[in-house]
């Protein structure tokens, strides 16, 4: 998959990814600004701003005008916020690229941030927070990272703190954007049935006059874990939810791809070790899976599961036993497992990148958050080069005694009965 990268005079980066067989295209604007840049007084503002961008601009004063315009071309538009970035995108027929750029640049540069709309949207945000609170299978990941990163921006929920959300005012949004939304922290990626030179010219037209300025830096993660750690969120549920894992590595670390394969072997599909041992063999959980999360200066590995509350200890024992077996080489990775895990990982990437929205996100994330941009073919090659020795090495390196972390959501009076299990 070929792409072209250019940098406008203001430092804004433009990436075009022609996909000749596509009649559609996605214009994605991603900003290097997420919840890890927040503080106690504006926790949740990155996500809140994402909502407000669609509520009206000077040119299009209401949300209905913006949504009506995109609906009128049969397009779809949305936004997303992570701990390190925020993205805004429109996907439409390829002949509407200029309109998409016009709307997106207008949203970033001329949002009204009407106090009336801000107050109305507070209710929406609060209900979104309630939704996550009532969906433990989604919330468990937040609890796990809260355990790892404690009372720091990296440990806070992206959606924010309810009391802070209630207090946010228009000036808070303006101050936040003035501290982070610099042109050189923005990447515009256009993927699909496009003509690169024409699209690059349009990007310069609509984004070339954005200002560049010095931006806020995020506080780096400091990791000093010396013993296993535990965090229980007490909640009455029919199903207990657990996340157990270890600290891992940043996006540019050489262990990244071996860790990805390790996660796949342990919990990456219906034939993975954990799925077989936890669900199929013992019927302990409905879902169980493993994954790795990478950030610019840290990362984490975890296995999550939804478990019968009466059998949580048994499920934990099984998961830990699988960790122990692979890290000690008592249950070493086989040639068959390695081949299957690599093909599973590569296949999922290929399937994901059949959509121009996913392709745009693939390139934008690398451009903003990593040291270099790899094509999908280069990533597939790196996955293909992972060896059994590398997988065994990272298992031994990271799945070690004293490093385990357990987060749980359920009606547990305390975590004492779990603490004794957290040893490899």
List keywords for this structure.
424 residues; alpha+beta; Cytochrome Bc1 Complex, Chain A, domain 1; six-stranded mixed β-sheet; five-stranded mixed β-sheet
Q: How does this structure look, described?
A:
The protein contains 16 helices and 11 strands. With 424 residues, it is of the alpha+beta class. The radius of gyration is 23 Å and the shape is globular. The protein has 2 domains: 4-207, Metalloenzyme, LuxS/M16 peptidase-like (Cytochrome Bc1 Complex, Chain A, domain 1, 2-Layer Sandwich); 229-419, Cytochrome Bc1 Complex, Chain A, domain 1. Helix 3 packs parallel to helix 8. It has helices at residues 45-52, 63-71, 97-110, 115-133, 136-149, 162-167, 170-180, 196-207, 256-267, 273-280, 312-327, 335-352, 356-369, 376-384, 388-398, 416-419, and strands spanning 4-7, 13-18, 24-31, 76-81, 86-93, 186-192, 229-234, 240-247, 285-294, 299-307, 405-410. The strands form 2 sheets. The protein has a 6-stranded mixed β-sheet with strand order 1-2-6-3-5-4, sandwiched between helices. A 5-stranded mixed β-sheet has the order 7-11-8-10-9, sandwiched between helices.
